[in-house]
Amino acid sequence: MCSNPLHKHELFEEDRSKQVELLPTLRQQGQKGNDVVNLALADFIAPKETGIQDYLGAFVVTTGIGLDKLVAGFEADYDDYNSIMAKALADRLAEALAELLHEKVRKEYWGYASREDLTHDELIAESYSGIRPAPGYPACPDHLQKHLLFKLLNATEETGVTLTESLAMMPASSVSGWYFSNPESKYFGLGKIGPDQVSDYAQRMNLPLEEIEKWLSPNLNYDI
User: Where are the domains of the chain?
Assistant: First the structure.
């Protein structure tokens, strides 16, 4: 259960009696046209003050278990073609599994779009309600959020997926992210942000400013 004062998610237990975690989000700071808002993912969760029972979902899926052994066998036979194809197929299957799980969330597990009946083209165009943004991608470019995501899901123990020092997922054919069901939720790019928000974000993440600047360096509108 979540609340979104400013641009953060406070994650609570079901009865809102105890805050479990705090998930800071980042807000666009680029100049927009008239009546165009600067978005943060927190905008897609109902604030606690509204009394609306709202949820943030999370997922980790993989189709890469056993792939390294398979690829090693191909490479031992100097079979580069099948080595490349095996990796590519595992990557595609991981994305397909993530899409399937998102569909089940919409139609079954959360059921907020139980009557969804989209064509193949509409699915490709992501015409469904809700989004599944991933840490490290345009709306939430901070890979550090994977730590929280994995902690909430007990993901390594449940799936076998681990995080490297650079926060890449292993096996590589893995996908993780958040679920938002708000019908107005949409994908967006954070763009460039300034030192004021970066400093505030570092405090909310309880991490040194220099570390946050390192992870967000492509999004900074200033030199470090």
Answer: 2-191, 192-224
Pairing of strands 2-3, 57-62: unpaired
Q: Write down the mean pLDDT value for the chain.
A: 91
Query: For domain 2-191, is the CATH number 3.10.196.10?
Result: yes
Write out pLDDT tens, residues 111-141: 999 999 999 999 999 999 999 999 999 999 9
pTM, full prediction:
0.87
Q: Which of 177, 185, 157, 160 shows the shortest CA–CA distance to 41?
A: 185
For residues 172 and 174, what is the distance between their CA atoms, to the nearest angstrom? 5
- Rounded-to-10 torsion of CA 40, 45, 51, 52: 150
Element of type H or E holding 169: strand 169-170
For the chain, counts of helices (H) and of strands (E): 7, 7
At residue 36, what is the residue type?
Answer: V
Alpha-carbon gap, residue 159 to 174, rounded angstroms: 10
